[in-house]
Amino acid sequence: MAEHARQILEGNWLGHATRPSSLLYPHQWSWDSAFTAIGYAHQDQDRAETELRSLFSGQWKNGLLPHIVFVDGGGPYFPGPEVWATEHSPNAPRRPLTSGIVQPPVHATAVWQVYRLARDRPRARRFLHDMLPKLDAWHAYLHRERTRIGSALVEIWHPWESGMDNSPLWDPVLARIQPRDGTAPEHLRTDLRVANPAERPTAAEYDRYLHLVALFRAHAYDDERIRAATPFAVRDVLFNSALVQADHDLTAIARELGKPSTKYEDWARATTQAVEDELWQDGSYADVDVVTGEVLDASTWSRFSPLFAGIPAGDRAEHVLDQLTDAMVEVEGLGPAVPSLSRKDPSFDPALYWRGPVWMNVNWFIYHGLRRYGRHDAAASLRTTMIELARKAGFSEHYHPSTGHGHGGAEFSWSAALVLDLLG
Ligand code: 2M8
After folding, report:
1. Three-state DSSP class for 356?
2. Which of 5, 206, 265, 412 could form a disulfide with 416 if both were Cys (CB 3.0 to 4.6 A apart)?
3. Where does the signal sequence lie (predicted)?
């Protein structure tokens, strides 16, 4: 199993970074690289460090860590660098070319794991030392530019920033957008040529994705202007939970290096409190639309992501753990798993990307959450299902929640890397 996972990563290795999947995603993606480094950490310190260093070579002067770092000659992908046109921003690097939005901040978590598992300790310490200022700038960007007065929660400004592109969470927000400034004609969409179109976001969704990119470009990627103008601004449970955990990990990194850590502890505390005060709505965690104040209550897996960061306590934690047990599905002959969207949700579709399939990273977050709350048996069952899914269906992008069949991109890096992490 581990050998097969290593072969997948080897096949996607570009010499300095790992692409998520050869045809569908032929460049370097932000949270994919963090997951991939978490897997490499067990086997290959050099690869793990190189993966994260190369991702951060795309970091902007204002600390923004872009969701895609384009690889010269990487292969066709829409929207490519010419659409992002990040030269409009004084903060974007001239090289490498990048996108101009972010993804969930799991990078400090990855850096800390790479450091902890490294065999060559002096080298690992140099790595940690080099990464601290980069992570500091990245988290400072989020806490500074992605918050508004009155809330410590960070905002996402695009469905792609959530990592869960076509989640039904965004339906009501996207419905308010009338796309004008930029559309995505089918012939430009490289994803439709290499993946099953029935498993990809719709044309209406892509038009809105592109409308938002055009808006960011028109505002020269100036955060203050975008904050005032964007019709898509969401306080997302997963993004904020990942950030709380990453702030905890950044605290550990700073302490390990004998550097001040109070700022990171304060960030973690303030965001935790804000998740508890502002995102707990009617007995469940839920995203909030900043523009309308509306609660976005689709029953996605991300309602459980605060467990990963140890956010809920006492009765609330028990309640979330009970909801999680209810949301699990049984993959035929393999065991329990958490689907990206509850079967009971009207938008549930077992093969449609972030609207139902089982994803390895989702189950990895939940596995760690369960362990954190002492639910070791449930965590062990989830681990077994993930390993057996990969054995049965290979390292797919996502899996059918009943049959366990693989869907989406094949030979998918984070599925391989996170199984390597589970194998230990
Ligand atoms: C998917 O998103 C990209 C856009 O960023 C796409 O569909 O083209 C998402 O699943 C995202 O979470 C992931 O990071 C990316 C690469 O695996 O693919």
Report:
1. coil
2. 5
3. none
| Sequence-separated (6 or more) residues with CB below 8 Å from residue 195 | 24, 408, 409
Q: Which tokens in the block code for residue 69?
A: 């770092």
- By most ligand atoms within 8 Å of CB, the mutation choice from 8, 29, 55 for ligand 1 is 29
The Cα–Cα gap between 285 and 305 comes to 9
- For atom 9 of ligand 1, the residue with the nearest CA is 163
- Does residue 31's CB lie within 6 angstroms of at least one atom of ligand 1? yes
Span 182-202, mean pLDDT? 91
Evaluate if residue 101 carries a pLDDT over 90: yes
**Alpha carbon nearest to ligand 1 atom 12, residue:** 163
Q: Supply the pLDDT for residue 243.
A: 99
For ligand 1, atom 4, the nearest C-alpha belongs to: 160
Q: Is the pLDDT of residue 181 over 80?
A: no
Q: In this model, does residue 349 exceed pLDDT 80?
A: yes
pLDDT higher than 80, residue 237: yes
* Predicted ipTM > 0.85: yes
Q: Which pLDDT belongs to residue 342?
A: 97
**Alpha carbon distance 314, 263 (integer Å):** 27
CATH number for the segment(s) 2-423 = 1.50.10.10
pTM, rounded to two decimals: 0.98
Q: How far is the CA of 376 from the centre of ligand 1 (A)?
A: 31
Q: Which residues are catalytic?
A: 165, 397
Report the pLDDT value the prediction gives residue 231, as an integer from 0 to 100. Answer: 98
